[in-house]
Amino acid sequence: MNWTDTGILLSKYKFQENSTIVNFYTKNHGKCSGIIFGASSKKIKNYLQIGNELHLNYNSKSDDSFGYFKVEILKVNTPIFFSQKRSMYCINAALNLVKLLTVENQENTSIYELVHKLFSILENENWYINYIFWELDFLKLIGFDLDVKKYAKKESNGKDEFFITTNLKKIKVPSFLISKSGDNVSNQDIIDGLNLISEYLQTNLFLPNSINFPHQRKKFIDDFKS
After folding, report:
1. In the predicted model, what is the mean pLDDT of the chain?
2. Residue 99 lies in a domain
3. How far apart are CA 10 and CA 30, in angstroms?
4. In this structure, are residues 191 and 221 in contact, taking their beta carbons and an 8 Å threshold?
5. How far apart are CA 6 and CA 29, in angstroms?
6. CB 95 within 8 A of CB 11
């Protein structure tokens, strides 16, 4: 099987001395894995960064066999944010979610476009607010629509706070997820928003599929606490 496509690098792992196992989310083939031979060469290594967009030429002996990629850089995305620790935590957490929760070799152009959108979101001053809506959009695209406004209940305790109550706990819902306004959003609001989605992920996706809670996500959330 042979094809060409464009893809955003989701993960990479060293394989043998000079090769790397990579995982891309592609425009026309969905999530795809394979090997890049000679990935340790200076020419390839410099642009083989998580989040970068590459032109891919994929070859395998059959649909069921593990293939290999020949790659060329198309767009440098991640290195722009190397000096921004929180943005890098976000990129790693977001792309790890895409890797964990999408199906191999299943085309979904909408997911590809959403991954593309991540990097334009990060260029904005208050990107972390829009990023939480990005996660909600991603969940909807994979068939898990967390309709916050539908389930959140307002409690008039002098603060007009919102909560979602399950059989096990009561989870705080930051008001900006209800109003969809970015005004006066605090770090604690961002933490509450990320924790709300984390709880949903843990209950509906991670635990049922025996997925450990991703350390990339934990580091991203913890950065708002510092």
Report:
1. 93
2. no
3. 12
4. yes
5. 9
6. yes
Structure tokens at 181: 């306004």
The pTM of the full predicted model, rounded to 2 decimals, is 0.93
For residue 49, which of 75, 72, 18, 78 has the smallest C-alpha distance? 78
Q: Is 100 domain-assigned?
A: no
Show the domain range for 195: 124-223
Phi/psi of residue 210, nearest 5 degrees: 55, 45
Q: What backbone phi and psi angles, to 5 degrees, belong to 4?
A: -120, 150
**Of 47, 79, 111, which residue is a domain's last?**
79
Give me the helices (H) in the chain, please.
42-45, 85-101, 109-121, 127-141, 148-151, 176-179, 187-201, 215-223
User: Both 219 and 144 in a single domain?
Assistant: yes
What is the CATH number for 40?
2.40.50.140
Q: Within 10 Å of residue 46's Cβ, how many Cβ atoms?
A: 11
Split into its structural domains, the chain has a count of 2
**Residue 52 pLDDT grade (very low, low, confident, very high; cuts 50, 70, 90):** very high
Region 182-187: what's the mean pLDDT?
Answer: 87
Structure token digits, residue 196: 């709300």
